[in-house]
Amino acid sequence: MIERYSRAEMVKIWEPANKFKIWFEIEAHACDALAKQGVIPKKAAQAIWEKGNKEYTLERIRRIEAIEEETRHDVIAFLTELAEHIGDEARYVHKGMTSSDVLDTCMALQMKQSSDLILANINTLMCILRKRAEETKLTPIMGRSHGIHAEPLTMGLKFARYYKEFSRNQKRLLIAKDEISTCAISGAVGTFSSIDPKVEGYVASKLGLAPEPISTQIIPRDRHAYFFATLGVIASSVENLATEIRHMQRTEVREVQEYFSPNQKGSSAMPHKRNPILSENLTGLARLVRAAVIPALENVALWHERDISHSSVERVIAPDTLITLDFALVRLSKILEGLIILPNNMLTNLNAFRGIHDTQRVLLYLVEKGVSREKAYKIVQRNAMKVWESIEAGDMYKGHIDAPLERKVESITNKNCLTYFLTQDEELRELITVSELESLLNKESLSYYIKWVDFIFQRVFPK
Amino acid sequence: MIERYSRAEMVKIWEPANKFKIWFEIEAHACDALAKQGVIPKKAAQAIWEKGNKEYTLERIRRIEAIEEETRHDVIAFLTELAEHIGDEARYVHKGMTSSDVLDTCMALQMKQSSDLILANINTLMCILRKRAEETKLTPIMGRSHGIHAEPLTMGLKFARYYKEFSRNQKRLLIAKDEISTCAISGAVGTFSSIDPKVEGYVASKLGLAPEPISTQIIPRDRHAYFFATLGVIASSVENLATEIRHMQRTEVREVQEYFSPNQKGSSAMPHKRNPILSENLTGLARLVRAAVIPALENVALWHERDISHSSVERVIAPDTLITLDFALVRLSKILEGLIILPNNMLTNLNAFRGIHDTQRVLLYLVEKGVSREKAYKIVQRNAMKVWESIEAGDMYKGHIDAPLERKVESITNKNCLTYFLTQDEELRELITVSELESLLNKESLSYYIKWVDFIFQRVFPK
Amino acid sequence: MIERYSRAEMVKIWEPANKFKIWFEIEAHACDALAKQGVIPKKAAQAIWEKGNKEYTLERIRRIEAIEEETRHDVIAFLTELAEHIGDEARYVHKGMTSSDVLDTCMALQMKQSSDLILANINTLMCILRKRAEETKLTPIMGRSHGIHAEPLTMGLKFARYYKEFSRNQKRLLIAKDEISTCAISGAVGTFSSIDPKVEGYVASKLGLAPEPISTQIIPRDRHAYFFATLGVIASSVENLATEIRHMQRTEVREVQEYFSPNQKGSSAMPHKRNPILSENLTGLARLVRAAVIPALENVALWHERDISHSSVERVIAPDTLITLDFALVRLSKILEGLIILPNNMLTNLNAFRGIHDTQRVLLYLVEKGVSREKAYKIVQRNAMKVWESIEAGDMYKGHIDAPLERKVESITNKNCLTYFLTQDEELRELITVSELESLLNKESLSYYIKWVDFIFQRVFPK
Amino acid sequence: MIERYSRAEMVKIWEPANKFKIWFEIEAHACDALAKQGVIPKKAAQAIWEKGNKEYTLERIRRIEAIEEETRHDVIAFLTELAEHIGDEARYVHKGMTSSDVLDTCMALQMKQSSDLILANINTLMCILRKRAEETKLTPIMGRSHGIHAEPLTMGLKFARYYKEFSRNQKRLLIAKDEISTCAISGAVGTFSSIDPKVEGYVASKLGLAPEPISTQIIPRDRHAYFFATLGVIASSVENLATEIRHMQRTEVREVQEYFSPNQKGSSAMPHKRNPILSENLTGLARLVRAAVIPALENVALWHERDISHSSVERVIAPDTLITLDFALVRLSKILEGLIILPNNMLTNLNAFRGIHDTQRVLLYLVEKGVSREKAYKIVQRNAMKVWESIEAGDMYKGHIDAPLERKVESITNKNCLTYFLTQDEELRELITVSELESLLNKESLSYYIKWVDFIFQRVFPK
To answer: Rounded to an integer, what is the distance from CA B183 to the centroid of its chain?
Structure first.
């Protein structure tokens, strides 16, 4: 984690002050439970809350660190400092518990808190995606597979599919959050040897966690692995959307543009540059979030009732990954909110290949007329290639250059277009007439491709 | 995937014969739907089933491969060969569809079929874990954290926790299977430009899949990423359990042993060897399954409406990862079924450190008596260290050497044990009497640690 | 590994016949060395070569597999089958050796053989890159950072930089090959307890390997990890070049094109498609090769003198990764050899933004004239943005549409170009004259950017 | 990176003050070169050094950050702040350069500086390993494969093999450092369009770097990928050694022990614990360093002349990975320096299986006597299994319990030992006499296994 890629809200969850506050609450709730059972005096439990429930200031944190320096044990350091506030009754704190009871339950809570932030971010992102989808529901744009023009669709469909992708991520994170939200207060090897399981149940309910059904010294790490794997999937979706923006902003495509603030500078050397740096940045951040997945999986196989190899990994990846993903999602929302859509360029690009994307329509029409698929394919392919090759000659943008901005696909009638070549094809002319072909291709061409948009939107967006 | 690590059942799902069979069914069902809509003649749809629904023999597969050699396109090769059987009506096949409609829907079905196999394996594994857990519910064994003796638990608790871990994996895989089980028949860029969405709905229902709510040319790859990430988690659990067995079988521990068949040879050089090679093997196989996670995540961000970079990755990781995990889970079940439990060795190890694991009990007792936690800790620690150091002197197994096989923890009374040192501690003797201490430590020592086993079993195992 | 992505030459190295041949040679050379030392009879060593040095036919391989089925030990199975050919003297074979002596030395040799193939592929690739670089040394093309036009360079420089990148990979692989080429014949735990180190030295020299200075039961796995990490770097370079081609082939850029054979089909639905599928395929294959890096790194930390967790990993990744990379490099060479360069399109794209890429020149000129960098930047940026915005209006290709194919940068003089806007800028006109500006920008514009191409070529290409 | 796992020396290299200092030096050296060429006034270059060469205090750093807030460009912010110190002549700074010239050259220098620290750490580590190896050169310890006793070796051989492993890492890092130590000052797309390559050469030589033979806007990222891959290999070696220590310290083995300071606490619940937490910690840190490898490989394939997706990744992994590895290596050295060796326990463990490790000797002896390998193997195996099974009965430590601390392998003569069972084997007795067998096994048993230690040490340690 570096400051540059972090937001205060998420950072706070992972700061020592929040961590020690949670540790205290776990211990204090446990004391309440122990007092209820008569294991420790009720007065003691009260005293712990009264004397110990204070903010963890920088001063207190430094004191704890100093004690840890000596004892080499963080929970003992915490307890020692706490005892300095509570006095004699401090000896009832942590009774029958092991450090991991505190550490793991705390981390579970921090991960839960973080998940709630991430879920809120995903929600915001989905709202923006939906809004942009509705705005551009019928804005035509060329669909591309392999980076090559395929058939038209609409910009709204693009936004809609990312909406749906993030709705899946939302569901996944809810599952992962649920999985990670457990509390273990089960002692040295998970047997409750020195503490009644009711304490676990009590603390869990106070913290909004579920009791861990069976723990060792620690909460099993397959839960954490699953959590980080889920974050890795979400990050990959961030990359997916960021990559789309980067492609659409590249100079030759220029169909969208990240907002560029008045004082922003694109390059120290080239004053003309407007780069999609935020989306590029997200691509990198996605790699960082994903990089936590393997270590998290490696953390699952621990020795016997636990070894501590997972700890250093989690100290780093838990805050770093969550802070990075939180930042990335908020940045992504901002990019999308400010994203400049350039529908004229979309249309220009869509038309640049003079109807070549209509090949499938002709193919299907011929098949319908009784031509074999193989033969129809060959006829259409060879004429499409003629368009293609004429464009290779360097005049690739000629077809639509004089058209007004509101030009439509229908207007392409110049002699390099697909229709032209098809009408010149002798074999084809024996199969269908020129007017048949022209009526097929020139009538409402675009609407042919977008007739199901409403239907798809109904599938994607809940009422 | 290599033969050595594969099972015929899973391999079959990924063989060309099954793949082409599914391709055929997708196409044929689609024809039925198109016929219902009156887009193609009913007779054509019938003819396709009648003439095309034949087994994909090696001969047919070779023929398809030969066509692909020329066309460089697998689906076109498949359709061409199919047309050779169907004749004229073949031109209705694939009408309005794009290759990915077939490829992605087929892979979804293969992954679903594979998931069912894996789920069955997990179920078998869980049954065995439960059986072994019940057998060893009260078999005492030393619990270890950091590889160091901590407090006793029972072998049954170990099995129970893996049972629970795999029950989580079962749930995860059900979710991932559900996520991956979608069908897309939506045309070149997902707009249904040349095919009615009802076809998708019809084919989906016939194949037991859900229609993909919004696709591009392909089914979105976050679904696959999530699926492989889930497999990675399951593989890590396999490693977790395999690592435990390896540790328990190592010579100095020897608490369990993989079954070793009469003619098996452990080493070409050393005839005395009995190695936990199956569990070691699983550790490696887990690495292989995990290795698919990152490529699967990298596959999410595709260009525009798809690029095909994911394809080569999936051609390899989909079969390989599923075949490997299938094999690993079955192997793991077999290991567990045949696993030789050595309870006497467990007891020997448990007693080897002469009661040192009882330190927490003394600590808590002192705290209860009003001693500060800090002071109690110091007293107990210094005496535990005396036991520890006496064992460093090389005679680490002395304490229990003459005991009969059914020796119990209570019988440790020699002068190097924890009780002995504690009773020699002057500061301690001022706090509690020797008889208090002896009655604390020597009475039902083991039962102190396992009193909640019933409770935990009830939490873990459903009625 | 799947057949689709493999070449016979590399596959052969990893087939059982080659493996057993190497095993035999290791054993037979070891016998020679033992005979020299008088440990076994010379006649025995001779007999082993005479009776045992036969091809490993399918029949022999099946026999070995059958024995392994029973003994669960591959080397013992191999030795047993060998004994069936050699007879009584077979008892001298493998004397004092451990299985890993054979297995690890064999794998070292296979990796060395594979490295030689990969090195040959890299060499071929470099030759093609050099040839293509020289052909296009002065072919102008727009340079892009962030996907956004930056300043021109030449196509030759692109090829040259990949040449250099692969020359680094060549060097890296030579180092990795050297590292991996060791022979260990040191017995059960590497102590030579039952075999004289001279045997190791003799076998090593016969096989062209170096003796492993210190082994355990096995050759240390940091060597293998380094080897696979190196393959991962090479694969990433493959992806780098493949990504460049994919970008340059995308419809809106169309500066290069993969060769498309006459009977090839781009899409089952869209006959017009010509997709860069080979380069996309390489992107996926790169992910597969990279996926082996983490498992190889995880294989380093083995228990004590070895555990066998690395073995299953290597059985898969060693052949798969090498076969995949071999295939990818050969495919890449073929793509580059057949790559269609479209210089006219390069020029069209270069000019599409009407001189906007010249901003730096103006900036530097102003600074030279005494204007502060800050002020100069602002002036140039605001005029560049005017060009940019005028292009946003949808007419992005207008500037150069009527120019002949050999149009040059100098010819852009229409009123939307950078020069035009600059000359309209009042603040700027106070600083420099219009004719100063025009003479700066219109004179040999392109040669300004490519004047150091010769110099760079000299740095890159050895005489 | 977190403070807990960092050392000031390495952190300093990556702090803003050092970064800006290097940025300044690059700019100032470049000005010197430009002045030499007469491109800018000599006085200007002097002024830049005189007025600009000041420490980057917190105040300056905050100022730069404030400017970046507005311009969204770090190098422009740096230059702006610098101009505030230099005044008018500031306009000559950065002339003809692009931001990446500064950023990439700076990062190269930081990585070089970091490499030097890591190399020093490896050197220290190797010295300690050598010292410990020499101390324990002949200290016998059981060798283990698969976690199972194999044949004896010496503790010195263990240390020696890690020494050698780190000497390989040393060599690898020297190569990677050399690869990464390049300087690029080549302008916007690497063509030197606005700057003479001599500037690059001059700055490179001043900073101790090599000029990058061919760059784009940036230094090619395969160099960085190779660098991080190398760090991943080193980290895996750290894990390898740490895993060995963890195994040797586990309670049942107890052959070594991490130093445990007098006030240290092993567990908050269990005062008796002494855990190998430092080595466990290194296992986790190794996972973190390795996690950077895949993102670094993903960074290689950038779009055209660069995209900036790599940047966020490197901002995190460059400091984090180097700081973590630096910390890990120093910690590892400290662990090894303070490592308590327990030779008596080594001997106890070695003898625990009553000579079972001698099976190979008997096997080879029988083969030498003319018995077939197969038959000899069976005889020896069945007797070894008798020892093994007698130990399964629970009395695994009996054989050596009354022996003095300096007991030797030879002294094992009780009736459960390998020799005993062998002498009872009727088939064997027909082949060799009891006295033959006893003289084989009881004479200098240990020296049989360690006779080549001197030889190996000579191979490993340079004079």
So the answer is: 27
Same domain, A393 and A313: no
Q: D333 and D359: one domain?
A: no
User: What is the b/e burial string over D313-329, where b = at least 16 CB atoms within 10 angstroms of the residue's CB?
Assistant: bbbbbbbbbbbbbbbbb
Nearest to A230 by CA among A343, A133, A325: A325
- For residues B371 and B442, membership in a common domain is answered with yes
Q: Please report the pLDDT score of residue C414 as a whole number.
A: 53
Residue A438 belongs to what domain range?
Answer: 352-460
pLDDT interval class at C401 (50, 70, 90): very low
Chain B: closest CA distance from residue D356 (Å):
6
- Do residues B194 and A361 make contact, with C-beta atoms less than 8 angstroms apart? yes
Which of A283, A317, A344 finishes a domain? A344
Q: Do the beta carbons of residue A295 and residue A317 sit within 8 Å?
A: yes
Cα distances (angstroms) measured from residue C430 to each of C359, C422, C424: 18, 12, 11
Mark whether D320 and D376 lie in a shared domain.
no
Which residue in B73, B193, B194, B267 is the catalytic one?
B267
D223: domain CATH number is 1.20.200.10
pLDDT, residue D443, reads 56
Q: What Cα–Cα distance (Å) separates residue B226 from each residue in A168, A178, A228, C283? A: 10, 17, 11, 21
Which stretches of B258-378 are assigned E, i.e. beta strand?
Answer: 340-341
Chain B residues near residue D232 by CB distance under 8 angstroms: none
CA separation for the pair D463, D455 (Å, rounded):
13
Residue with tokens 């700074």: D93
Pick among A268, A275, A311 to test the D interface (most D CBs inside 10 A):
A268
Q: Is B232 on the interface with C (CB under 8 A)?
A: no
Q: How far apart are the first and last CA of chain D?
A: 39
C210-211 and C182-183: which strand pairing?
parallel
**What average pLDDT does the segment D86-114 reach?**
95
* Beta strand segments in A34-187, E: 140-145, 148-154, 182-183
Same domain membership, residue B410 and residue B340: no
Tracing tokens 């093609």 back to the chain, one arrives at C128
CB contact under 8 A, D288 and A316: yes
Interface of A with D in 69-88 (CB under 8 A): 70-73, 75-76, 79
Burial of residue D302 (number of CB atoms within 10 Å: 0-12, 13-18, 19+): buried
Sequential DSSP letters for C181-224: -EE----TTSS-TTS-HHHHHHHHHHHT-EEPSS-SSS--THHH
User: Do C128 and C223 fall into the same domain?
Assistant: yes
At A385-433, the pLDDT tens digits run 887 777 643 333 333 333 333 333 333 345 567 888 888 888 988 888 8
Return the beta strands (E) in C255-372 as ranges.
Answer: 256-257, 340-341
Q: What's the number of CA atoms in the CB half-sphere (13 Å) around residue C102? A: 30
Q: Are residues A312 and A373 in the same domain?
A: no
Within a domain: B18 = no
The DSSP secondary-structure symbol of B170 reads H
Residues D198 and D173 in one domain: yes
Q: Tokens 């229409």 map to which residue? A: C414
Least confident of A456-460, B417-421, C267-271: C267-271
> What's the domain count of chain D?
2
B152's enclosing H/E stretch is strand B148-154
Q: What pLDDT was estimated at residue A414?
A: 53
Q: Considering C344, C371, C398, which residue would you say is the last residue of a domain?
A: C344
- In this structure, are strands B182-183 and A256-257 parallel, antiparallel, or unpaired? unpaired
User: Which string of DSSP letters, residue by residue, matches D119-131?
Assistant: HHHHHHHHHHHHH
DSSP string, D15-43: SHHHHHHHHHHHHHHHHHHHHHTTSS-HH
Which of A281-295, C62-76, C388-402, D259-273 bottoms out in mean pLDDT, i.e. has the lowest?
C388-402
Q: How far apart are CA D37 and CA C365, in angstroms?
A: 17
